[in-house]
Amino acid sequence: MDEGPEWYDTMDMKQPFSRGDLQDLRYLYTLLRNARKDAAEGTDMMQAFEKIRQRIQQMEFFTCLSPILVKKSGLLDDGGLRVIFENQTRGIEFPADIRADADILFRKWMGGQIDPHLFRGIITKSGTAKGDKGFKSHSIDPDFPGKVSCNYVGDGNLVSGQWWPLQMCAKRDGAHGEIEAGIHGQKGRGAYSVVVSGGGYANVDNGNSIDYCGTQGSPESVSAGTKLMLQAYENQQSLRLLRSASLPASNAYRPTRGIRYDGLYRIASHEILDEEKAMYRFSLARLGGQDAIRCSGQGSIPSNPQILELNKIRNQIA
After folding, report:
1. pLDDT tens, 132-141?
2. Is the distance from CB of 271 to CB of 297 less than 8 angstroms?
């Protein structure tokens, strides 16, 4: 690594740390050495890959994490996580989901987001609605230093398969700039991202292609969200696409919990479904060269550690 972020390069290496916790972090190196040994001996790699997969997913939620531990581990240096997501180990082709998870963890830690809490930077408040029903509201802490702008075209610093427990958290990390709305963009620049959810629209989700509805307008004008989509079509710019767990259970691409980033799509065409309501539907096609949508199999997202962590938090704030 030629040059790291400021927090990494200016770290006081004399800070105290637990050697046991450091060993826990460095255990990934042991798994990588074992994988190299298996590859050299011609042993089936499935078991080695599964151990690495589980370890990376667990490391995201290590409660011992601290900046000094992350730097001492060397996982952000050239011989660390890069070895996995850049496929630098001779004779080993890491599965796409393992590479992606290593990349996500690398980017998160490199950006200074060491806090393992899923709701980091999120303020949760309790209240009582009509009928004495309790509710929780969430907002982004205005003083949270890790908030990322969502106003850009493309992946930015995101990795396909990245996951959040709430749409609010996706906004915090620069994936989608709306707390509830499904279309985000800027006037005159077009849409940047869309969320596919169970909002009652006539959407058709085929995974790599989606028929996605704009929002209802009037006979006089299209809605603001639809205008953003039309501008994105005119610009032929890519859209970040996220899927929500609020999709029907019959949807094969639906995440079981939260919201998942599924990569970049582009609007291929559009049609008018209802002229009176200025209701448009847009045909989206997933761009080539991306890893498969992580909706099934060993690499499906959310992972078991993510679900367990979310359940733990839900129990704490219930």
Report:
1. 565 678 899 9
2. no
